[in-house]
C-alpha cells in the first residue's frame, strides 16, 4: 500500500469516526427531546409532583437542581481556583507537589456512589447536617474540586511565560501579575472547566441519594427567609434534584403517568444543561473581551 | 536621567549542576549600548536574564557573584526583587504585549506604582509612545487591543511599556530577530535614540546588527566572557583568536 492510499484510507476512517460521534449525539439528544418535549408545559415546570395521581410536575426538583448547582459552585470555585493557582504558581516542583497532584487525580475519578456514602457518613451523620442541600453540595464538592483544581492549574500553566515575565519585569508583584495579567488569559479555559464541573452537578444522582436525600418538603415559594424550614432557600432542608427524581419515578413511581414525567424531566434536564453551557461560554467570551480589550 | 551604569563581578549561573555562565565580570556604562554576542547556548541570554533576576522565576537556577547598580549589590538575596525590576526594563525576542488595550499596556505599570490620576497617565502613555516612535500610528486607537498591531509595532509597544516605568537600564533579548527587515531597522533607530537616556544591553545573533547599534561588544563562548571592548576594536582587531574566528564567520 503506498502512502497516498494510506492517507486516503486514514481520511475516510477519521471522517467516519467523526460522523459516527455526531450522529450518536444527535440521535441521543433527538430521542430524549422527542420523547419528552410534548410533556413539557409551564404547569409541568412549576407544579409539585403527585405521588399517586397523574399530572404532577417537577417544579421543586428543577429549583433544587439549580440551587444545588449554585451552592456547590459557591464552595467549589473559590477553593478550586485558589488551589489551582497555588499548584501552578507557588508550589515548588518536588515529591510533595507530585503526590498532591496524584491525590487530586485519584479523587476526581472516585465512583460517585462511594462519594455519596462517604458524604452520608461524614456530612450527614458525623457532622450531623442531616439530609440536606448543604450535605449534597459538600459531597459534590469532593469530586468537583479536583476537576476545578486541575483545570485551573493547567490553564494558569498554559499562559505564555513571556506574559508573566513582562509583568514581573515592570516591577509588579507576583500576586498582581497573577491576578491582572495571567488570570484574564487563563479565564476562558477556567470557565470551560467550570462548565464541565457544573454539568456533573446537574447530572449527578448517585452521590446525592444519601446526602441531599430523596424527598423535598412542601416548599413555600413565597417564603424567602433562608432559615425557615419550608423556604426554598434554606440550605439545611432535604432536596430531591431533577436527576434523582428521574431515577426515583423510574424505579418506584406510582403515578400512572410516571413514564411521561420521567421523559419530560429528562428533556428538561438536557435542555437546562445545554442552555447553561451556551450561557457560560458566552459569559466566558464576554469576560475575556472585557479583561483583555480584544475585539 | 543620569545613572552610574551597571557593574558585574564574577557572576556565575548554575542550572542544577551545570554552570551556564562562568565567573563573568563586565561593566556597562550609562548612555551606551553594549551588545552581547556569541553562538547559541554560550550563556549570553542567561547572563542577560540574571541582570534583573528573571532567572529567579525558574526553579533550580542558582546565581552567584555580584551585580552593582548605584552602589547596591542586587544579587544579594535580601534585595527586594520586585522593586529592583522597576529599574531594569526588559524586551523579549518575541513581542509579548499584554492582552489588553494599547493604552492599558503602557498605563498598567505606572498605575501599579502609584500614579492614579488619569491626566498624568495620559501623559505617560503619550510620552512613552512618542519615545518608542509609535504615537503617530496608534494615537487614534489607543483603546484597541494591542494584539491587533503588527509584530514590529508590538515590539515597539513593548519597548514603550518598559520605559513607562522609568527604568535606568533596558535589557533586550534579541529584540529584532522575530521581525522583518523594515521593522528591524525601526527598532535599531529606536535603540540609537534611547541610548541618549538609558544604559542598554542587547543580546543579538546578528553580527551586522551588533556592529550597527552598539558602542561596546562582549563576546561569550561556552559560558565564558572571552573578550569585551569597543565595538570597533572587536570587529576590526580583536585580541582573542575565538573572537576573530566567530566574527569572521568561521564558526557559530
UniProtKB/TrEMBL annotation, chain A:
GO terms for molecular function: phosphate transmembrane transporter activity. The chain crosses the membrane at residues 12-34, 66-90, 102-123, 129-147, 181-202, 261-280. Coiled coil: none annotated. SUPFAM superfamilies: MetI-like. PROSITE patterns: ABC_TM1. It is a multi-pass membrane protein. Keywords: Cell membrane, Membrane, Transmembrane, Transmembrane helix, Transport. Residues 62-280 form the ABC transmembrane type-1 domain. It comes from the Bacteria. InterPro entries: MetI-like, MetI-like_sf, Phosphate_PstA. Belongs to the binding-protein-dependent transport system permease family. CysTW subfamily. This is Phosphate transport system permease protein PstA. It comes from Paenibacillus phyllosphaerae.
Automatic annotation (TrEMBL), chain B:
One of its GO terms (cellular component) is membrane. SUPFAM superfamilies: P-loop containing nucleoside triphosphate hydrolases. Residues 6-247 form the ABC transporter domain. Pfam families: ABC_tran (PF00005). The keyword GTP-binding does not apply. One of its GO terms (molecular function) is ATP binding. It comes from the Bacteria. PANTHER family: ABC TRANSPORTER I FAMILY MEMBER 17 (PTHR43423), PHOSPHATE IMPORT ATP-BINDING PROTEIN PSTB 2 (PTHR43423:SF10). This is Phosphate transport system ATP-binding protein.
Amino acid at each position: 500500500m503506498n502512502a497516498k492510499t494510506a492517507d486516503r484510507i486514514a481520511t475516510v476512517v477519521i471522517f467516519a469516526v467523526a460522523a459516527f460521534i455526531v450522529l450518536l449525539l444527535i440521535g441521543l439528544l433527538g430521542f430524549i427531546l422527542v420523547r419528552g418535549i410534548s410533556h413539557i408545559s409551564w404547569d409541568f415546570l412549576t407544579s409539585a409532583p403527585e405521588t399517586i395521581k397523574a399530572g404532577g410536575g417537577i417544579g421543586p426538583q428543577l429549583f433544587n437542581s439549580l440551587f444545588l448547582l449554585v451552592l456547590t459552585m459557591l464552595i467549589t470555585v473559590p477553593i478550586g481556583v485558589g488551589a489551582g493557582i497555588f499548584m501552578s504558581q507557588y508550589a515548588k516542583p518536588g515529591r510533595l507537589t507530585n503526590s498532591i497532584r496524584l491525590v487530586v487525580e485519584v479523587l476526581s475519578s472516585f465512583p460517585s456512589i462511594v462519594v455519596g456514602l462517604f458524604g452520608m457518613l461524614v456530612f450527614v451523620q458525623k457532622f450531623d447536617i442531616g439530609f440536606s442541600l448543604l450535605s449534597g453540595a459538600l459531597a459534590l464538592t469532593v469530586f468537583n474540586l479536583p476537576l476545578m483544581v486541575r483545570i485551573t492549574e493547567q490553564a494558569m500553566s498554559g499562559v505564555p511565560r513571556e506574559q508573566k515575565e513582562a509583568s514581573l519585569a515592570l516591577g509588579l508583584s507576583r500576586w498582581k501579575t497573577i491576578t491582572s495579567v495571567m488570570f484574564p488569559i487563563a479565564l476562558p479555559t477556567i470557565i470551560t472547566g467550570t462548565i464541565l464541573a457544573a454539568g456533573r452537578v446537574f447530572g449527578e444522582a448517585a452521590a446525592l441519594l444519601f446526602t441531599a436525600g430523596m424527598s423535598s418538603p412542601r416548599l413555600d415559594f413565597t417564603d424567602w427567609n433562608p432559615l425557615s424550614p419550608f423556604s426554598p432557600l434554606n440550605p439545611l432542608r432535604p432536596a430531591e434534584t431533577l436527576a434523582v427524581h428521574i431515577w426515583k419515578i423510574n424505579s418506584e413511581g406510582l403515578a400512572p403517568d410516571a413514564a411521561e414525567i420521567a421523559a419530560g424531566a429528562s428533556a428538561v434536564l438536557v435542555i437546562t444543561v445545554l442552555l447553561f453551557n451556551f450561557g457560560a461560554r458566552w459569559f466566558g467570551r464576554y469576560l475575556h473581551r472585557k479583561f483583555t480589550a480584544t475585539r | 536621567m543620569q545613572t552610574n551604569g551597571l557593574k558585574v563581578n564574577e557572576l556565575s549561573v548554575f542550572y542544577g549542576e551545570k554552570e551556564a555562565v562562568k565567573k563573568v565580570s563586565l561593566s556597562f556604562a550609562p548612555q551606551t549600548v553594549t551588545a552581547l554576542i556569541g553562538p547559541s547556548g554560550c550563556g549570553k541570554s542567561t547572563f542577560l536574564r540574571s541582570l534583573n533576576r528573571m532567572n529567579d522565576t525558574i526553579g533550580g537556577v542558582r546565581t552567584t557573584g555580584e551585580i552593582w547598580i548605584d552602589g547596591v549589590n542586587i544579587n544579594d538575596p535580601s534585595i527586594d526583587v520586585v522593586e529592583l525590576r522597576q529599574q531594569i526594563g526588559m524586551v523579549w525576542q518575541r513581542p509579548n504585549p499584554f492582552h489588553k488595550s494599547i493604552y492599558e499596556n503602557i498605563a498598567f505599570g505606572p498605575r501599579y506604582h502609584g500614579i492614579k490620576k488619569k491626566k498624568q497617565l495620559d501623559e505617560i502613555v503619550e510620552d512613552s509612545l512618542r519615545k518608542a516612535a509609535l504615537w503617530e500610528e496608534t494615537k487614534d486607537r489607543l483603546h484597541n487591543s494591542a494584539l491587533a498591531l503588527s509584530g514590529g509595532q508590538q515590539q515597539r509597544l513593548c519597548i514603550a511599556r518598559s520605559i513607562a516605568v522609568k527604568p535606568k537600564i533596558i535589557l533586550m533579548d534579541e529584540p529584532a530577530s522575530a521581525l522583518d527587515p523594515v521593522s528591524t531597522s525601526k527598532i535599531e533607530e529606536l535603540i540609537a535614540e534611547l541610548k541618549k537616556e538609558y544604559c542598554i544591553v542587547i543580546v543579538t545573533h546578528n553580527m551586522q546588527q551588533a556592529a550597527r547599534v552598539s558602542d561596546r561588544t562582549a563576546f561569550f563562548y561556552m559560558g565564558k566572557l572571552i573578550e569585551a571592548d569597543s565595538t570597533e576594536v572587536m570587529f576590526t582587531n580583536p585580541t582573542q583568536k575565538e573572537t576573530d574566528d566567530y566574527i569572521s564567520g568561521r564558526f557559530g
